Structure formats: structure tokens, C-alpha cells
Amino acid sequence: ENMWINAGEFPGVDDNKNYRISIGELLSHGLNDSNSNGVIGLDDLEGSAFENNIDDDNNGYIDDFVGWNYSSIYTPNQPLDQSGHGTHIAGTIAAVTNNAFDVSGVSWHTKIMAIKPRQGGQEYESVLCTEALLYAVNNGADVVNMSWGFYGSVTVSELFEEAAAYATQLGVVL
After folding, report:
1. pLDDT tens-place string over residues 60-83
2. What one-character-per-residue DSSP string does the chain give?
3. How far is CA 62 from the centre of its chain?
4. What is the mean pLDDT of residues 38-66?
5. What percent of the chain has pLDDT over 70?
């Protein structure tokens, strides 16, 4: 409900022609709970007709359904949170109400775009963080939370500073 879904990667599914896709629209076009866990998730897209190894929206990323995982070229593109930090922050921002979890976010109509610039324990990599920021901005993010969990001092590259300036020029809040 509050997960950003990349409408461009689901050709023919945007029934309302508003560049937003609901879970209902995905279900009506053949996506189902393939592992019977009661949740429609990334694992249900694996092997589906939607996972076609084509960059359907021509943004340079193949099958980027809900975001992108920059943390490793050896893992599938599943920007999942292993440490819990991202989930905690996303919940603080956008947890929906009336869901039996006794939690609500500060902006429950917000869509969360999952982007993973690094793996837990991985060193800061300026190029990956820059690419992650540009992906968010170029795919319509209005606000980018950059609590990337770095400890100590980090030297920010000129490339990242340019990307941050670009985001700011477009009105994105960092």
C-alpha cells in the first residue's frame, strides 16, 4: 500500500493511465501470491511474466520493480533490509494506519522507494551512493532519506556533491 511501484516496468498494467500501479491492478493482470504467505512481494515477481529481463521503462535498470540494490552485483535486484534500520525509518515515515500493528507513520499516504546503496558492514562507496541518489531523483522521489548508517567521518566526493546539488535544483528535499 505504501510501497513505490515502478509503473514503467509493468507495461499494460496501468489501467488508470496515471503512472501509478496498485496491488489490485497487478493482481488483475496475473500476479499472485506464488508462495502462499499471504503477502504480495518481490518473491512473487520472480519467474512471473513481469520478470522479463527487459528494461521496459528505458531508465537503464532491468526489472527495477520497487527500486534498486546497488550493494552487490552478485545478488538479485532485491533492495531488502537485512539490518532493520531501513524498515524502521520507512515505518516512522509511512506506516499505514488501521493495520492491527498499533503504529502509524507521520505521513501514511507516502510511497517508499526501496534503494540499497550498500550492504550492512560494507564500507562507504561514494559512487554507489551517488548512483542511488540519482536513481531516486530521476525516478520521481520528492524526499530522499540518506541515513545510510556510516560511523565516524566520511569524505563526500565531488561527484556526490554534484548529484546532491542536482537533486536540490529539482526541488528534492535531502
Report:
1. 999 998 889 887 665 667 787 777
2. --B---GGGSTT--TTSSS---HHHHHHTT---TT-SS---HHHHTTSTT--SS-TT-SS-TT-SSEEE-S-TTS-S----SSSHHHHHHHHHHPPSSSSSS---SSTTPPBPEEE-S-TTPPP-HHHHHHHHHHHHHTT-SB--------S--PPPHHHHHHHHHHHHTT-B-
3. 14
4. 84
5. 88
Report how far apart the first and last C-alpha atoms of the chain are (Å, whole number). 24
DSSP 8-state assignment for residue 30: T
CA 33 to chain centre: 20
Q: Please report which residue ranges of 52-125 form alpha helices under DSSP H.
A: 85-94
DSSP label at residue 54: S
More confident residue, 154 or 49: 49
The number of C-alpha atoms within 13 Å of 54 and in the hemisphere containing its C-beta is 9
Which residues 6+ apart lie within 8 Å of 11 measured at CB?
Answer: 56
Angle between helices 158-169 and 126-138 (to 10 degrees): 10
C-alpha cell at 160: 556526490
d(CA 75, CA 106): 33
